[in-house]
């Protein structure tokens, strides 16, 4: 496939779609790359990306949700790794470790659920596993982003020494504080911290009384901050140790950087993988918000958009709680071009943009908001001429610009092109512009291009009727209210309702009549005929819908009766079989009873046995001998029937349980009647009715005539009030 022009993307507002996708990304790198999504030229690659997005959509409603993929960009770290003798910062190491861990988690997940996400699993398998990088980093840096004490033997030793010296500093400082606090040399605050060191707060007049190093003064100069002499010696030692610690940390980080440096290419791939997952997840969220899906991709040049929504309009109306009207449109080799006509503000342009934007979205790897039975194909080029393209910079009028654009169309148009033109031929003299537009349309038709155009020109409507593979279509318009219905109807041209709309907007009827006289009588009659046909079409559509509903109901009733008839036949067959079996059993029973009576009289066993054998042999001769295979098949069939019966019983039981629960809930929610002595009542789920003799607290004494019993009022329901 060839690349689709940037002008086409702008005309169809594709950048706005990309902004909405970028807003749903969770990483900065994902947001940045989402804004640069373009139509994919390789068909195989496109189908993979569409499939991956579709798989991610299924994960959003599945229990097996894909793990989080959020990460921080490591682009700066990757640049440093390319330069020899550079050292990464601690934060950089943490980001690298995090990316490696996330990738390993993602790969492990896709491997575990590869049957659910086969395309995402295949994509993740293209990246080599590397657990050494996070292990190397985690052996040096802890979870708080600090260098571990055991990162090296020398560092461990230095930190032990530092802790020891810090302890001595505290001891020596406390000793000096204790020594001077009994005297009046110290200020009320006694001590402070200067340059991360504990110092004594000495009154200025006693500064020479205390041995040590002056570290600073207060703003007023009344307090001198002095580090005691005993502490000073240990502070110098601490400085030396901290310097050695810093040097050792730098050495460790240098070594760790050099360990990771050879894997820079892999880290770049890991970041690319997570960025792709982020964009895929964003596309999936976007698709879920507007009920988008992956339609059937046809290898033939055919497009069937059923209940297609304009994504931007759908989401905008969704926020406002307003309805969006879907469109259904078909393009195929026998109907390659559609000419849409009808009044302004009727939805022609939005229909055109819906077709174009959905096509661009699909070819950029995005799912589209259409019915699941929709079908789409791929085009090498999508050419558009939409909106007022007057160019001030190039000093071109709208018509000049459009002619220049048409020239591009004529050069690029072929059988693998989809062209979309709004208000075809406008901007010049209607007759001359219409004639030129008709010629252009004939060229597009001869080159077997696919396209949709909107127009008010009658000659283009007539051409669409004459050529076999072009069809007219119109946006339905209510002739009485003069309001658009936003429904596209294929097969006939639409009236512009010019005079009707003018009349509705308050233009005097006398002026409208004057205007009608100024134009050709034939044109007015032609437009009036189209207008009348549209009104008739609206009536027919309503009648057709009603008849279709009635036909559907009739089919459902016929199907129900057929099922009932089948069940009755089956029952009759079963009853007949049961009757025949019972008759045979009665016959056998009668024979055996006769033999038993004869044996009872004459006690002749031999005759009894021979007669019994004869009966058995006679019965066996009627039976067909079954093979082991037939017996096995019958057993399997019987088991299947039993299983089906059990399943049906389970379903029926479950339904009964649910009905019972609903009844209980309904009963609970039902306001309880206030019972009085003499009221006729019965227990819930009981048929016996009695009268209340006495009421005590929450109990009632019920007289049933033969006996009396006491029950809770909650278990009673009222049958009749006392008269």
Chain-wise SSE layout:
Layout: H1 6-11, H2 14-23, H3 28-34, H4 43-60, H5 75-82, H6 90-112, H7 118-124, H8 132-138, H9 153-181, E1 186-194, E2 197-203, E3 212-217, E4 223-228, H10 229-260, H11 264-289, E5 296-297, E6 303-308, H12 311-320, E7 327-331, E8 337-341, H13 348-363, E9 375-376, E10 381-385, H14 398-412, E11 417-421, H15 430-446, E12 450-454, H16 458-466, E13 470-477, E14 484-490, H17 498-504, H18 509-518, H19 521-602, H20 605-622, H21 628-669, E15 680-683, E16 689-696, E17 699-703, E18 708-712, E19 716-720
Parallel strand pairs: 5-9, 8-12, 8-13, 10-11, 11-12
Antiparallel strand pairs: 1-2, 2-4, 3-4, 6-7, 13-14, 15-16, 15-19, 16-17, 17-18
Structure description:
The radius of gyration is 45 Å and the shape is extended. The strands form five sheets. The chain has a six-stranded mixed β-sheet, sandwiched between helices. Strand 1 and strand 2 form a beta hairpin. Mean pLDDT is 81; it is low at 389-396. It has helices at 6-11, 14-23, 28-34, 43-60, 75-82, 90-112, 118-124, 132-138, 153-181, 229-260, 264-289, 311-320, 348-363, 398-412, 430-446, 458-466, 498-504, 509-518, 521-602, 605-622, 628-669; strands spanning 186-194, 197-203, 212-217, 223-228, 296-297, 303-308, 327-331, 337-341, 375-376, 381-385, 417-421, 450-454, 470-477, 484-490, 680-683, 689-696, 699-703, 708-712, 716-720. It is an alpha/beta fold and 723 residues long. The relative contact order is 0.06. The longest helix is centred in the C-terminal third of the chain and has 82 residues, at 521-602. Helix 2 (14-23) crosses helix 11 and helix 19 packs antiparallel against helix 20 (605-622). The two termini are 89 Å apart. It contains 21 helices and 19 strands.
């Amino acid at each position: 496939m060839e690349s689709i022009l940037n002008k086409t993307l702008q005309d169809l507002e594709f950048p706005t779609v990309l902004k909405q996708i970028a807003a749903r990304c969770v990483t900065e790198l994902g947001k940045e790359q989402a804004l640069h999504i373009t139509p994919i030229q390789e068909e195989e690659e496109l189908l993979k990306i569409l499939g991956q997005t579709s798989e991610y959509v299924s994960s959003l409603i599945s229990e097996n949700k894909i793990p989080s993929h959020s990460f921080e960009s490591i682009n700066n770290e990757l640049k440093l790794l390319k330069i020899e003798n550079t050292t990464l910062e601690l934060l950089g190491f943490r980001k690298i470790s995090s990316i490696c861990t996330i990738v390993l988690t993602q790969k492990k997940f896709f491997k575990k659920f590869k049957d659910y996400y086969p395309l995402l699993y295949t994509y993740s398998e293209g990246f080599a596993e590397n657990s050494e990088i996070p292990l190397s980093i985690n052996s040096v840096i802890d979870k708080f982003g600090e260098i571990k004490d055991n990162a090296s033997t020398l560092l461990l030793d230095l930190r032990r020494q530092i802790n020891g010296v810090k302890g001595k500093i505290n001891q020596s400082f406390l000793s000096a504080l204790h020594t001077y606090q009994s005297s009046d040399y110290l200020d009320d605050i006694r001590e402070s911290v200067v340059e991360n060191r504990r110092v004594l707060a000495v009154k200025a007049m006693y500064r020479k009384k205390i041995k040590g190093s002056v570290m600073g003064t207060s703003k007023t100069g009344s307090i001198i901050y002095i580090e005691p002499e005993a502490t000073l010696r240990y502070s110098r030692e601490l400085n030396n140790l901290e310097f050695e610690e810093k040097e050792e940390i730098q050495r460790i980080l240098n070594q760790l950087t050099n360990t990771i440096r050879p894997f820079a290419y892999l880290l770049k791939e890991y970041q690319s993988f997570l960025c792709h997952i982020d964009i895929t997840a964003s596309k999936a969220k976007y698709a879920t918000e507007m009920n988008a899906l992956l339609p059937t991709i046809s290898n033939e040049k055919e497009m069937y958009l059923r209940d297609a929504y304009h994504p931007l309009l759908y989401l905008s109306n969704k926020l406002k709680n307003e309805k969006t009207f879907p469109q259904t449109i078909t393009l195929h080799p026998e109907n390659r071009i559609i000419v849409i006509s009808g009044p302004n503000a009727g939805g022609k342009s939005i229909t055109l943009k819906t077709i174009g934007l959905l096509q661009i979205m699909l070819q950029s790897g995005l799912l589209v908001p259409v019915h699941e039975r929709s079908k789409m194909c791929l085009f090498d080029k999508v050419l558009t001429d939409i909106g007022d393209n007057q160019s001030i910079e190039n000093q071109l009028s709208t018509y000049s610009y459009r002619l220049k654009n048409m020239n591009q169309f004529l050069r690029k148009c072929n059988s693998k092109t989809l062209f979309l033109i709004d208000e075809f031929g406008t901007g010049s003299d209607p007759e001359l512009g219409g004639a030129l537009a008709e010629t252009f349309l004939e060229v597009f038709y001869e080159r077997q291009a696919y396209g949709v155009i909107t127009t008010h020109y009658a000659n283009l409507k007539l051409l669409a009727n004459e050529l076999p593979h072009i069809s007219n279509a119109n946006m339905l318009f209510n002739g009485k209210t003069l309001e658009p219905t936003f429904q596209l109807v294929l097969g006939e041209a639409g009236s512009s309702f010019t005079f009707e709309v003018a009349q509705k907007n308050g233009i005097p009827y006398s002026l409208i009549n004057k205007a009608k006289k100024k134009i050709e009588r034939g044109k007015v009659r032609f437009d009036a005929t189209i207008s009348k046909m549209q009104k008739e079409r609206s009536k027919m559509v309503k009648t057709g819908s009603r008849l279709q509903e009635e036909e559907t109901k009739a089919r459902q009733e016929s199907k129900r009766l057929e099922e009932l008839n089948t069940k009755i036949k089956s029952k009759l067959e079963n009853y007949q079989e049961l009757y025949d079996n019972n008759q045979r059993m009665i016959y056998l029973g009668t024979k055996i009873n006769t033999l038993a009576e004869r044996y009872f009289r004459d006690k002749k066993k031999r005759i009894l046995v021979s007669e019994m054998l004869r009966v058995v042999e006679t019965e066996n001769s009627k039976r067909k001998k079954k093979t082991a295979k037939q017996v096995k098949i019958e057993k399997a069939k019987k088991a299947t029937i039993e299983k089906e019966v059990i399943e049906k019983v389970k379903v029926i039981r479950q339904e009964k349980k649910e009905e019972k629960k609903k009844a209980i809930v309904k009963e609970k929610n039902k306001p309880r009647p206030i019972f009085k002595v003499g009221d006729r009542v019965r227990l819930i789920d009981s048929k016996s009715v009695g009268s209340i003799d006495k009421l005590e607290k929450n109990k009632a004494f019920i007289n049933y005539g033969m006996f009396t019993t006491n029950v809770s009022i909650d278990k009673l329901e009222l049958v009749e009030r006392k008269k």
